[in-house]
Amino acid sequence: MFLVERSAFRTLVRGRAFASQSAFSDLGPTWAPMEQLQATFDEVLLRPWRFPPHVQELHRMAVLERQQRQRVVDQAPVAAERQALLARKVVYCIMGRESPRVQVCVTKVSAAQDFMERSLHELQRAAAAAQSGKLPKRRSNAAKSGLALEHPENLLLYVLESLASPDIPYHRICQERLRHWALRVRDLSTDLIVERKRALRWSR
To answer: How many structural domains is the chain composed of?
Structure first.
């Protein structure tokens, strides 16, 4: 489970300590897992062949998409070794390292801040459910059913594209790009599940 000290979290969020010019090391030991997630993202960009097929396929898809979007919105902020998880106004996904469970997110803040807020929300929700003795209702959204609370070693945060543009307001394109990526990822997940089932049949 991804744990965060609540008092430290609230202090950082109120002070917007996620400013893109800050390095993860400036955020203190509470935020050390974000450095790990950033390093893994950079590794996917630089050496994708080291990762499972579903990660490689998502990366291949995202590279082509970013190349096409470059003419509209500069994608340099989400390149390798640019602290992309601190870049604001992005579409990103939370995904399992060993399975094609994916949630696509769009955020005006950074992927790092958005993910931490989701994690804290799910942690509070789980704690409230435990105190009341009621199990939380099952929701179809993958991250809301557990991904945001997975340990960082089991997760990838992958920045799909930057929406930061001086010419196109964020609010005009954020939902459109979110829907676009949700469809792309859904199709990818379906294809991978079909391929996995076919491979299991052949292995018997």
So the answer is: 1
Residue 1 lies in a domain: no
Return d(Cα 121, Cα 28) in angstroms, integer. Answer: 21
Q: Which 8-state DSSP code applies to residue 10?
A: H
Contact 152, 36 (CB under 8 A): yes
Distance spanning both ends of the chain, measured CA to CA: 34
User: Is the pLDDT reported for residue 90 higher than 50?
Assistant: yes
CB 40 within 8 A of CB 159: no
> pTM to 2 decimals?
0.74
List 52's β-bridge partners, or say none: none
Half-sphere exposure of 106 (CA within 13 A, CB side): 17
- Give the range of the structural domain holding residue 177, as residue numbers without chain letter: 6-203
DSSP-derived secondary structure letter, 138: P
In a domain, 167, yes or no: yes
Closest CA to 74 of 13, 165, 201: 165
Structure-model confidence comparison of residues 2 and 53, the more confident one: 53
3-class state of residue 107 by DSSP: strand
What is the model's pLDDT at position 33? Answer: 82
Domain assignment present for residue 31? The answer is yes
Of 149, 147, 65, the residue nearest 98 (C-alpha): 147
Half-sphere exposure of residue 36: CA atoms within 13 angstroms, side-chain side: 12
